[in-house]
Amino acid sequence: MVSLLTSDALERKDRFDWFCETVSSDVMPVSLNTRHADDFQASLMSLDLGVAQLSSLVCSPVASRRTLAHVRRGDPENLQLALITQGAFRISQRGNESVVAGGFVLTDTSRPSEGSCTGGQVGTLVVQVPRQALALGSDRVDRLLAQGLAADAGSGAILADFLTSLVARGPHCRPEELHAMGAVTLDLATAFLARQLGDPGQAPAGARALEALKRVYRFIEHNLGDSDLTPRMIADRHSMSLRRLHALFSDQPLTLAACIRQRRLERAHADLACAELNGLPVQAIAARWGFSSATGFSRAFREAYGITPTEHRALALTTPQHSERRNPAVNGHPHAPLEPGRVPTAITGPTHPPDTDRAADPD
C-alpha cells in the first residue's frame, strides 16, 4: 500500500495544523512547532513493506518534542532509522545528541526525544521496524540512539542507495512486491547497524530465523479467529516460501498446523466454560475461533479433551473446578498469549529492558 499526502491543496494558514495532526495520528503523538506557520509546506509518502514501513518526508523547518506523556498516549514500539537527504537535523535521545546531515540516525519511539532543523527545509527517508523484529541485542542497539551514522561508504551507502531507489520505484510495485522488499530492507538495516556496533556478524542466519519465528507466533496469536489462517496465508503475509515457513517450525514442539489448531481449541475451551457466553451456540463459539466445520470442531475437541464441547460446557457451568482442571490455557488465563513452556523462552523474551527513561514524566 502506498500513501501520499501533501499540504499543497490546503490554505496556507491550515497547513501546519494539518501537518501536526497527520504526524500525531499516522506516526506517533508528538509536539511540533515552527517559525514558518504562515508559509509551511510538507509532503509525506509512505510505503507499507509488511515487516517495515518506509516514509519519505520533506517539510519546512520544524522542531519536535516527544515526552513520556506522548509515549503513554501512543507508542508503535518501533525503531526509526532516518536518512537525512536534505538539510540538517539535530536530535537528542537518552543522553545522546547529534546534528546529522547526509547520514543516518536511529531513534526509539518508546523513549522521549527532541529534534529540530538547524537550517532550511529538511528531507528524510525513514525506515520504521518493530524493535522485536531487529535481530540485534536491545542493550547494544541502545548505544546507537541519536548518533550520527555515516551513509557514504560500505553498508551505509548500500542501504542509502536501496532506500532511495525503493522510494522512487516503490509506488509502482504491487503489494506483494513491496512486502518482499520489506524483508530485504530489514536485512540491510540489520547488517548496517551490526556494522556500527563493530560486529558485522551480529545477526547471523540463526538470529534472523528466530526473529522470523517470533513474528509468525505473534501473527498466529492475533489472527486465530480468521478461518483463512493457513500456512499459505501466513507465508504470503511474511514474504516467505512455504518451505521456509515450515522449516522455522522444524525444531518446535508442534508443527505449524498443530500450533494453530491447539490455540484455537484452547480459546474455544475457555469460552465454552464462560457463563457470560452461555447464550452463544457451540458452533458460534467454534466459528469465533476459526473453525468452519461443526463436525470437525467437535471431533478435534473430543480428541483433545476426551469429551464433547457440549459436555464440557455443561460440566464447566455446574462444576467450575472442571474448567480449571481441564483447561490447558497458559498462565491460568484462557486468553493468554503463547508463553514459555508452549513456546521456548527465546521466542517470547522481554521486549524492553528496564529503562530509567520510563520511570517518570518530565512534564
Structural account:
The protein is of the alpha+beta class and 363 residues long. It has helices at residues 12-26, 68-73, 138-141, 154-169, 175-196, 205-222, 231-237, 242-248, 256-272, 282-288, 294-305, 309-318, 320-326; strands at 2-6, 31-33, 42-48, 53-59, 63-66, 78-86, 89-93, 96-100, 104-108, 113-117, 122-130. A six-stranded antiparallel beta sheet has the order 1-3-4-11-6-9, with helices on both faces. Strands 2-5-10-7-8 form a five-stranded antiparallel beta sheet. Helix 7 (231-237) crosses helix 8. The protein is elongated and about 70 Å long. The protein starts with a strand and ends in a 37-residue tail after the last helix.
- The CA-CA distance between the termini, in Å, is 37 Å
Secondary structure tally: strands: 11
Work out the helicity level: 40-55%
- Gyration radius (Cα, Å) is 24 Å
What is the SS-derived class?
alpha+beta
Spatial strand sequence of the major β-sheet: 1-3-4-11-6-9
Apparent shape = elongated
The stretches of 5 or more residues where confidence is low (pLDDT under 50) are 324-363
Percent in strands:
15-25%
- Let me know the average pLDDT: 83
- What is the number of helices? 13
Order of helices and strands: EHEEEEHEEEEEEHHHHHHHHHHH
Short overview:
It contains 13 helices and 11 strands.
Task: Jot down its keywords.
363 residues, alpha+beta, 6-stranded antiparallel β-sheet, 5-stranded antiparallel β-sheet, 13 helices, 11 strands, 41% helix, disordered C terminus
